[in-house]
Design goal:
- By secondary structure, this protein is α/β, with parallel strands linked by helices.
- The chain has a single domain (2-158), classed as 3-Layer(aba) Sandwich (UDP-N-acetylmuramoyl-L-alanine:D-glutamate ligase).
- The chain has 7 helices and 6 strands; from the N terminus they run H-E-H-E-H-H-E-E-E-H-H-H-E.
- Strand 1 (16-17), helix 2 and strand 2 form a beta-alpha-beta unit.
- Helix 5 packs antiparallel against helix 6 (119-133) and helix 6 crosses helix 7 (144-151).
């Protein structure tokens, strides 16, 4: 894994990471451009409690992470970067089935960034993708119509400092 990161970094690639477990602590030391992590992983690997925005921001700065996105299931997500701090959540919880929702969220986030959307728009799309995933049994078994169905239920707002 680390060898692949070496190759990517030498090629000038921005590291956009969504990983858990043993690799997470090593990869954070590489100062990824984007780190998407769920709140439980953040607590288990780094001891940072859910909702502790000060510690999350300190973690981002210490590790020189440009964009830190923390997901917390139906409680939504936060995006911390130098320019802004955002929170997003869906106002409607349609299902308890969430397997694959983090991956769907990450795919939506990367797609939004690739298409030149703002952080706010990318986070809204990512949240809609995560919510759309819950509509059907099976990881990432949704289509554009499902994203369109859920996106108007997503709220994105600035986090008060």
């Amino acid at each position: 894994m680390m060898r692949l990161l070496d190759i990517a970094e030498r090629a000038g690639c921005r590291l956009n990471i969504d990983i858990a477990g043993n690799w997470l602590c090593e990869i954070v030391l590489r100062s990824p451009g984007l780190l998407k992590i769920n709140a439980d992983e953040l607590k288990a690997s780094f001891g940072i409690e859910k909702g502790d925005l000060c510690s999350m921001e300190e973690f981002r700065l210490i590790h020189s992470i440009e964009d830190l996105v923390i997901t917390d299931g139906k409680n939504g997500s936060v995006w911390l970067c130098a320019q802004e701090k955002l929170q997003a959540f869906s106002t409607v919880i349609r299902s308890e089935f969430a397997v694959g929702s983090g991956d769907s969220f990450f795919a939506g986030l990367l797609y939004g960034q690739k298409k030149g959307m703002s952080n706010r728009e990318s986070l809204r799309l990512a949240t809609a993708c995560g919510a759309a995933n819950t509509l059907s049994y099976g990881a990432s078994q949704f289509g554009l119509c499902d994203v369109e169905r859920t996106i108007d239920e997503v709220v994105v707002r600035e986090i008060e400092s």
